[in-house]
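Internal ticket #5521
Category: modeling
Description: The requester needs a full-assembly model to guide mutagenesis choices. All entity lines are attached below as received. Residue total reported by intake: 352.
Assigned to: D.W.
Attached entities:
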Amino acid sequence: MRLLAALALAASLALPAGAMAGVDKPVIVKAQRGPCIAPPDVMRRVHPDLLRHQRTITVHEGVVDAKVSLEKCVACHASKATGSVAASPQDFCESCHAYAGVKLDCFECHASRPEKK
Amino acid sequence: MTSRRAFLGKAAALGGIAVAPGLFLFEPARAKGVTSKVRWGMLVDTTRCDEGCDACVAACNRENGLSGRTGPDDSQWIRKLELKEEATGRTLSLPVMCQHCAEPPCVDVCPTGASFKRADGIVLVDRHICIGCRYCMMACPYKARSFVHYPLHDQKPDVPRSQGCVEACTLCVQRVDRGEQPACVEACGATGRQALFFGDLNDPQSEISRRMRAAGAKQIRADLQLDTGVRYQGI
């Protein structure tokens, strides 16, 4: 097994750098406001858990002013180009989810644009 | 200049404050969540409800992003009914929506727990766990629930909704949680008719409780013993 891994590593090192890049890295649109509720590495890993946990508390218990809020995500991360987090392949949520191959279904129901004031 | 949110917070801290006659700011749930100390309800004074007026329905559609179409495939959260008593010819006009039962049949039959009653009495659908089986629609004696048949776009940020889930009147839960009245109640007041009243049924001093005590308020299909949160005067 270890031998196999070593062989695979050697093979990958032998390839030119261009062949390594299968897909483009996601575009990360800069947030429009101040710092997020947690550092980027934490948010990248746990944002689904935070949102899934919060949705139950918000819908069933009526806690609406929580720190974790999809509406607040959208308010900060909507791109200037489309005004949305998921309208174009370059938008914040869509871009990463396409890269990771994870279906993004939040915005089938939730608005992907901040409320027009 | 105080922000609106800060103002509402202060106002809420002082309890229900009368802004104008019939217009109250209620203590919003916000960060603590809702409790069963309050039970939100609505009183419909059918003697003041005008035939042909659909201000409540229009306001509901606007607030919640509904199309306003009334076909079998369309969501209707409020229906205006015009009734006529055959024997006497007496006519009656009234809005019917989710009655926010204390013992909701929709919650009883829901196989996933998506249909639920919040602690403050508002009956809701958690769309995250609704599988669209529509048992609740069949169980509801008031025909209050609708199924969304097609994908939707440009939903309101406060009112997420889409294809494959059942939905109904939420008593404008997003407004109630901000300390406001449901959109239909506000719109009815704005027409000058004031046929709708919203408030806390648990508080004997609230305007809605006082009106119900004075004038009486019936439930539709009281025989089902569902203890509805929406009550009707003059039926």
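Resolution: model delivered.
Comment from assignee: The interface with chain B takes residues 55-57, 59-66, 71, 74, 108-111, 113-115 of chain A (CB under 8 Å).
Ticket closed.
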